[in-house]
Amino acid sequence: MLGYLGDLWRLLRAGFVLARHDALVPREFRARMPLVFRILSACLRLGAGREADEGRNARRRPGQRLARALVRLGPAYIKLGQFLATRPDLIGAAAAADLSELKDRLPAVAPAKLHAALSAELGARARALLPLPPAKAAASVAQVHRITLAGGEVIALKVLRPGIAERITRDFRALRRGARIIERMVPASRRLAPPALIDIVARAAGRECDLRMEAAAADELGAIYRDSGFARAPGVIWDLTSRGVLALSWVEGVALTDRDGLASRDFDRKKLAADIIRCFLSSALDHGIFHADFHEGNLLLGPQNELVVVDFGIVGRLGPDERLYLAEILWGFITRDYQRLADVHFEAGYVPASHSRAEFASALRAVGEPIFGKTADQVSMSRLLLQLWDVTHLFDMRLRPELALLQKTMVQAEGVARAIDPELDIWAVSRPVVEAWIKRELGPTGRARRFVARLGAGLRAAEKWAQAAPEAGAPAHPAPATPVARMKPGLLGLGVWAMAFALWGLLALAVLANRG
To answer: CB–CB of 214/243 below 8 Å?
Structure first.
């Protein structure tokens, strides 16, 4: 009972804050809302009072007002907003763009208040870190301190805010309850599965509250960057890392957000921009993992003018089936076989059978054909992706939410790289990575490797079936799966399709440009 009342209070508080910022039922959409929502919004606005900067608030777009309200509400709501920024199919492209600017920079916790937590996490090892100096940076979940150890080594120590895991757990419990209420009261919302959406964000936030997960991601991606030569990452100091503490080697550098700092450095802008694109593509395509918060604040220009990537709290992954699907879609777009592309999506279960395959193929053609004949620097990934969101709406395609990170990261990589070098030819810098990957996945070696892997999986499945048949009464001849069915469509996503399309566009443009 107390838990229910606590959740109710948190939801009411959220409603008041959203109403105060005119973000609960924004005035731009109020006339189209059901009467019950308009009444509820009016009541909450009365209770919430008037925003102090109402004049400026009135000039803000709905997405901007929502972002301000979410910052007021705290870490769980900020994480929800950051996730919604990856879902323009749910909230619209304009609101998604506004939320993509959402930052969770907050005042730092006084160092003395973290000493007890450090001692509890590290025991006697904490003595080498105390007393903590003032924080260099502070976000909603953790803050970073620069520490010089007794031997002279300089490290970056990331420490969770006290009680942050418990607060996030409480807030997401209330959000889950609110999502279930919305799902019951608003039948139209069920297509979006609000409770599932909240669960996805809650799991991601939970991983951010275990810094061992970030340490593992930093170590894995650091090894990938080191092998590729396109970037580097700070090394993990495992002896000083635990659930609530992460120790990394300190990196001197200029953040790509620091325009003045960059202007004072003499470096090759074209190389840095190229490395940003190649760093993302090589890790995602070759290794199936990518840094999923690839904005300027997490990218540095290092002492040797190299690209340095930091903050690995959010990573995305592509499984073998997803990467195979990416290869097949990429090949279909390269050959401009739109009917085959449509067939693959229907067979994989992305487009409901109630839609027309011919119409879907026509929609793919309408998005793809205008790209031909243009140079690579005339095509923006972000514009391509927004067109794909329109197709998503039109054909009721289901998007795997986690893979929306892929689109968001692609757009971030393009934006950051072009801010460094506005004349960047994305295909020219990504072509070596993409071409090598296509040859490997679609060439004879890749096909043979997949055949052997599928054969082994089939033999193991047959062995399990044979062992279970006597007791379960399994049929003598199980129905074979189709090639697309074997790709497990539940593990795939429109995000992979979008990435395939964007990469295909770059390849097609380069081919045509070379012919010209």
So the answer is: no
How is the chain split among helix, strand and coil, in percent rounded to 5?
A: 65, 10, 25
The parent domain of residue 359 ranges over 321-402+438-443+488-515
Task: Give yes or no for a contact between 280 and 410, defined as CB atoms under 8 angstroms apart.
Answer: yes
Query: Which among 401, 400, 406, 359 has a CA at the least distance from the CA of 490?
Result: 400
The catalytic position among 22, 89, 275, 293 is 293
Question: Which are the contacts of 216, defined by CB distance < 8 A and separation ≥ 6?
Answer: none
Is 171 inside a domain boundary? Answer: no
Nearest to 100 by CA among 80, 81, 76: 81
Task: Count helices and strands (H / E) in the chain.
Answer: 23, 9
CA–CA gap between residue 183 and residue 243 (Å, rounded): 35
Domain count across the chain:
2
Report d(CA 5, CA 154) in Å as an integer: 48
Within-domain flag for 260: no
* Strand-pair partners of 439: none
Average pLDDT of the residues in 231-246: 96
The verdict on whether 260 is a catalytic residue reads: no
Instruction: Confirm whether 426 is domain-assigned.
Output: no
Is residue 303 situated within a structural domain?
no
Model pTM score? 0.73
Calculate the average pLDDT of the chain: 77
